[in-house]
User: Which sequence fits this backbone?
């Protein structure tokens, strides 16, 4: 596989994090968007393909896309103030910028735009 195609595939990846690597991911990346989900959450499952597609959108190339199981990772859940699912949070240089529950792609695009 050529290196440019590999880079594009890596940029499109949505990474799963846990409490053990959550803080390091925030500290090591300037811009991060996190989707909090639960396995039982139907709306979480419906928004996943849209979130995955946005991770490959060139407008958001500098943003790290992450998902966290809210039921299994209480430290991350508390840091973002998760109140309902699906829940999205953006961090810039480790600081929480925006956080709220939504299942609307337009709201996620708005959060990403504000992050840039």
Assistant:
């Amino acid at each position: 596989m050529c290196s440019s195609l590999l880079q594009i595939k890596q940029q499109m990846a949505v990474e799963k994090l846990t409490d053990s690597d959550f803080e390091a991911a925030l500290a090591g990346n300037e811009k991060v968007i996190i989707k909090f989900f639960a396995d039982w959450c139907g709306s979480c499952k419906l928004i996943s393909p849209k979130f995955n597609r946005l991770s490959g959108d060139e407008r958001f190339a500098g943003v790290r896309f992450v998902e966290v199981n809210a039921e299994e990772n209480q430290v991350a859940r508390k840091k973002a103030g998760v109140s309902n699912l699906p829940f999205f949070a953006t961090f810039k240089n480790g600081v929480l910028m925006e956080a709220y529950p939504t299942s609307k792609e337009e709201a996620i695009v708005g959060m990403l735009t504000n992050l840039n």
About this structure: The beta strands are 15-17, 31-37, 64-69, 87-92, 95-101. The first helix runs from residue 3 to 12.
